[in-house]
TrEMBL record:
Pathway: Polyol metabolism; myo-inositol degradation into acetyl-CoA; acetyl-CoA from myo-inositol: step 2/7
UniProt-listed HAMAP family: IolE (MF_01672)
Phylogenetic classification of the source organism: Bacteria, Bacillati, Bacillota, Clostridia, Eubacteriales
Record's protein name: Inosose dehydratase
NCBIfam families: myo_inos_iolE
GO biological process, one term: inositol catabolic process
Membrane-crossing residue ranges in chain numbering: none
InterPro entries in UniProt: IolE, IolE/MocC, IolE/XylAMocC-like, Xyl_isomerase-like_sf, Xyl_isomerase-like_TIM-brl
EC code: 4.2.1.44
Molecular function in Gene Ontology: manganese ion binding; myo-inosose-2 dehydratase activity
Reaction(s) this enzyme catalyzes, per UniProt: scyllo-inosose = 3D-3,5/4-trihydroxycyclohexane-1,2-dione + H2O
Cofactors named for this entry: Co(2+); Mn(2+); glutathione
Family: Belongs to the IolE/MocC family.
Length: 299
C-alpha cells in the first residue's frame, strides 16, 4: 500500500480535452473538467489548454473544489531555437507553477519531436540526438533544474514517444549526462509500454530519481492490431484508443505500485490517459481509475 501521507493522487485534463487535438473534447468546459475530477475523488490536476492562464484567476476555481496543481507540461526547444529563448520561457512557466503551489515541473525536448506529426510513423521514425544535441539538452536541463531548485521545486524530464528520450538507452544517457541533484525523471508507464519497454526495470533502476509518476495504461489489442501494422502516427494511435486509464488495459500496475511502496515514494501519481471523450466518457473513466487505484494502493 502507498502511504497517503506521502503520495497524492491527481488526474490530467487530457481525458476531457486534448491539447494536441483540440477537437477531442471541444465540447467539455474547463469547469466541467475540474468539477468531475473532484467528484471522482482526485486531489490534484495538471494544466490543460482551457485552464485560465493567470494563476490568480485559476486558483479560486481549484480551491473551491479541493484541487491543487501538481505539474504542467513544458516544451523545451533547445535543439531548434536559441538557447536563452527556451531558458527564459522555462523560468516564466516555472514561476507560474510556483505561484500555484506546484512542487514539480515536467519538461520534454520538442525541438525535433514527431509526436504531433501526423505524417510520421511513431514507431518507425523517431528522432535521435547527435552528440552536439545531447550536450545542449543536458546543459539546458541542468540549468532548468537549478532554477527549479531555487524555487523549491523538482525539475523532471518526461521520456516520451516521438522524442530523443524514448528508449532505455536514451533514458540511461539522459540520467548519466545530467546532475542527479538537479534533473529527475517523470516516469510514465504508458510511454514505456508503447515503446516496447517493460516499465518495471526502468522504475526499479531510477526510483530514487523519479519525482513524478504518470499512470497510463495501454490497450495492446489496439497497439498490435492497428498501431503497429498501420504504422500510425502518435496522434492517430491516440484516436484509435491505444491509451486508457489504469486497470482498463494491459499494463500490470501491481509491481509498479510495489516498487513505489518499497522505495517510500513521496510525490504525486497522476492518471493520464488521452482518449476520445466521445468514445470514453471522461468522468466514467476517472471514476474507474479512482476505484482501481484505491483497491490496489489504498490511496
Amino acid at each position: 500500500m502507498l502511504n497517503p501521507n506521502k503520495v497524492k493522487l491527481a488526474i490530467a485534463p487530457i481525458g476531457w480535452t486534448n491539447d494536441d487535438m483540440p477537437d477531442l473534447g471541444a465540447e467539455n468546459t474547463f469547469e466541467q473538467c475540474i468539477s468531475e475530477m473532484a467528484l471522482a475523488g482526485f486531489k490534484g490536476s495538471e494544466i490543460g489548454n482551457k485552464y485560465p492562464s493567470d494563476p490568480d484567476v485559476l486558483k479560486p476555481y481549484l480551491d473551491i473544489r479541493g484541487l491543487q496543481i501538481c505539474n504542467a507540461w513544458f516544451s523545451s526547444y533547445l535543439t531548434s531555437k536559441p538557447y536563452e529563448e527556451t531558458i527564459e520561457a522555462f523560468k516564466a512557466h516555472c514561476d507560474k507553477l510556483h505561484k500555484l503551489g506546484a512542487k514539480v515541473i515536467g519538461a520534454s525536448e520538442q525541438g525535433n519531436s514527431i509526436q504531433g506529426d501526423l505524417t510520421k510513423s511513431i514507431l518507425d521514425e523517431k528522432p535521435y540526438y547527435t552528440d552536439e544535441e545531447w550536450a545542449i539538452v543536458a546543459k539546458g536541463f541542468n540549468e532548468m533544474g537549478e532554477y527549479a531548485r531555487s524555487k523549491g521545486m523538482y525539475f523532471t524530464v518526461h521520456h516520451h514517444m516521438g522524442t530523443g528520450v524514448q528508449t532505455v538507452e536514451e533514458i540511461d544517457k539522459l540520467m548519466e549526462l545530467t546532475d542527479p541533484e538537479l534533473v529527475y525523471l517523470l516516469f510514465d508507464s504508458g510511454h514505456l509500454t508503447f515503446a516496447g519497454i517493460d516499465p518495471v526495470p526502468v522504475l526499479k533502476k531510477y526510483v530514487d530519481r523519479i519525482k513524478h509518476v504518470h499512470l497510463k495504461d495501454v490497450r495492446l489489442d489496439v497497439y498490435n492490431n492497428e498501431v503497429v501494422p498501420k504504422h500510425m502516427s502518435f496522434l492517430d494511435a491516440v484516436r484509435a484508443g491505444v491509451f486508457t486509464v489504469p486497470g482498463d488495459g494491459d499494463v500490470d500496475f501491481k509491481p509498479i505500485f510495489d516498487i513505489l511502496e518499497e522505495a517510500d515514494y513521496e510525490g504525486w501519481v497522476v492518471v493520464e490517459a488521452e482518449q476520445d471523450p466521445a468514445k470514453a466518457n471522461p468522468f466514467e473513466y476517472a471514476v474507474k481509475a479512482r476505484k482501481y487505484i484505491a483497491e490496489n494502493t489504498g490511496l
